[in-house]
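User: Can you predict the 3D structure of NERD domain-containing protein? Sequence below.
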Amino acid sequence: MKNILKIRSEPPQIQALNRLLHGISSTNHQVINSIRQDIDRIQAGYKGELRVDHFIQETHFQLPIVYFPNAELQVSKYRFIQIDSLIITPSYICIFEVKNMRGILRFHENPFQLIQIVDGKKRIYDCPQSQIIRMASSLKYWLQKNNIDLPIYYKIAMPNSNTFIKKSPKKVQLLFNKEIPIFLEQLNVLPHQLNSEEFHKLCVKLQSQIKPYNPFPLCNKYNLQPENLLPGIICFCGMQIEYSIRKNQKCIRCGASKKDILQQALLDWFYLFKPTMTNRECRHYLKIEDKYIVSRLLKNMNLKSIGNTKSRMYQYDYIQPLFKN
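Assistant: Sure. Here are the predicted structure tokens for NERD domain-containing protein:
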């Protein structure tokens, strides 16, 4: 089996939050600041994860590997785990919890806490030690349930060189960027626990069960409803567009096509508000009065229809593309 290193894609909530900034009233300063802080935090996390990806790719593996970035796995009825970096081999499994943080860091136990001091400001976070220990325990449970015996190694990856560790964690080792390939190459001596067929079956099973992390819808966090945003169809440039039946309609400011703008506005609904939509909600949201036009729009999307004609609701699963070809 050839090595498979899947490419990490940009978190979709970055685009969704930027769209939210276009639609929210400029007078809502507190929410706007909160959204911008979240965008900066998610972008920083993504950049750190890309650095870790680079050093995993740099590693001289001497055995087959499959790499899953940003993997969410349901291990039991009520437990889901989200793993930043998951490496599968016939000899071992390795997981990294990535923390792209600058400043002074102190790791505490009993209770687990991570304290960060940046520019004289103190922030307290959930400790990545407890997070990754929970992940490893959950993954071990999943393996046992599937009759697979593989050792699990786990580390906290610190991709930011502008970090000073004032108090190191006691339970989980930290690795800076250049230490990642050194650590992984040390595992090359481990004996194979799975033969080629067993390893292939494990990777196929994981591939079928791993899903990309789904943080949607986003507006619940900011206590926002559709009526808190500017009404109508909002273009990529922030211009409000009034719907027209003309096929060649374009934004008068940036020239974007009606089809692209409309599709983005509909995607915004599911990313921001909720996974369902009715014809009435769609008409009110887009400011389109004709229910037949809206009905055609809804039928052109990969949505599950629920209920009868009068109370019909359309549901999106966030897995397949929203729009049909």
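The longest helix spans residues 29-58. The CA atoms of residues 58 and 181 lie 7 Å apart.
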